[in-house]
Amino acid sequence: MQKLIDLISEKVSAAFEAAGFDPAMGQAVLSNRPDLCEYQCNGAMALAKTLHRPPFEISDAVAAKLVETDSETFAAVQSVKPGFLNLTLQPEFVRGYLVKMLHEKKFGLQQPAHAAKIILDYGGPNVAKPLHVGHLRPAIIGEAVKRILRYAGNDVTGDIHMGDWGLQMGLVITELKLRRPELPYFDENYTGAYPKEAPFTLQELAEMYPTASAKTKTDENASDEEKAAAAAYKAEALEATKKMQDGDRGYRAIWRHIMNLSLPDLRRNYDHLHVDFDLWRGESDVHDVIPGMVEYFRQNGFAHESQGALVIDVTREDDAKELPPCIVLKSDGAALYATTDLATIQERVKEFRPDAIFYFTDKRQALHFEQVFRAARRSKLVLPETELRFIGNGTMNGADGKPFKTRAGGVMPLADLVADTEKEMYTRIRESNPDMPKEEAQKTAAQVALAAIKYGDLSNQPAKDYIFDMEKFTSFEGDTGPYILYTIVRIKSILKKYEEQGGSVKDALLSAPGTHAEKVLGLQLTRFADAVESAVRELAPNRICAYIYETANAFNSFYHETKILVEPDESKKQSYIALIAMTKRILETGIDLLGFDAPEKM
To answer: Is residue 160 part of a domain?
Structure first.
């Protein structure tokens, strides 16, 4: 279905041509003065410069053609000096367009002739430690983009790409060995079966990693002995990592225990966020293909030795400054993140033959991915037409403008942030609806809290840092998730009452808008496809947030100016019901694209 703005532009372009001018100048845009008109065209201004004629002469001629030929589309066409075209649509034309939207799949959003195969790499948690607030943004941005791309007709696969093979595993193994040296995993002569139960709980595992990590670090005031101890501990952890990766039987058994405890916990946390992955793969999945890939690099001259390390040069002739080479193997033969990222690209191309691979993680990793992408292209791991794109996210900060932390100054577990937000929403819901049963209030609070967190994050541009403001994000007023949900719940309540009065929502017929607020709401609904296409083009969920916020505002203005259920004219009442039912469907589609849903009441 053709977008409304394109349809209007087509008609204005025809008028330009009929008046003897270049039809390319007929591009219409939303009016920046909605008090004067709904759409405008500024083509006469640009055309006047090339034709050396007063712009109002051109706009006058085009306006005359529009009035003469297209009164069914335009209720008013004004040529305004110095040369603007102000356009107002006929109410019946708006009604007709909305009816077509209702009869089209996905409200008329055009689907591609070819479904692009896209892999999204998002989430990226390190196994063996609980999710913290820094994991929030890549997870929910990636999830929203996945939903948006799928809705737009693409074939999308989401991969969590866990860090399950690196130093954090060696740190846990080293700490466990220090605490429990008698365990059979550390006995090189042990040949029996290892215990099925892990020698630690999930809670102990969550404590061991930060403890072990802290032992590898010292501050500037540390003594030489403390520095030596930290270096020795890290060396032992690196050795443990290498032994695990090389297949040490006992260390691999500990690794499996870590995975068996960590994965269910990760799934629970992501499920709570409505974040779903099609693939639960990690660095370990490509470990066995790395030797073959490295040999391929060597044999084809893509990689070379530099100071003992194996590297791929990634600097191009057009670079303003030289980029560091992509290190494939360290001097001791150890693989790095870049190595596993390259091997993962190789395997994704082999298995899926994707048109594009998009990565969502902290924007501070931009250089890393630039190196990896260039190395992948230089070594021909991907086809020339395969798109590789990095979407770096900014940080979620506290009121001090620094990365969000607990009151004690530590990194806040993600589960604690969610729990605190649910507690705040529960308090607000009980205050506004004291008669709601406790269990229902708790369930509603969880739904609204998720909306508060996700909308508060996604309404920002992905690369932008933002401040997590609990009071603002949980408010029922303003540009917030709870405000959007409250609007949907309000519409649900009206539709329910209408049916209780004997009306049928599905049979309600839409009439031409008769009031300004009704028409504004209808026109806002027509822009749904524009919002989705913009979000797809920019991989930016904030475009959907902006659209549903504007739609909620348009509905609430209409609601406050219109007596819907007590309207005596039955055809008008039906039209109001049809319009707000369509509004509800579009708002619900919008929040589903963002990854949350609305309760029945609040």
So the answer is: no
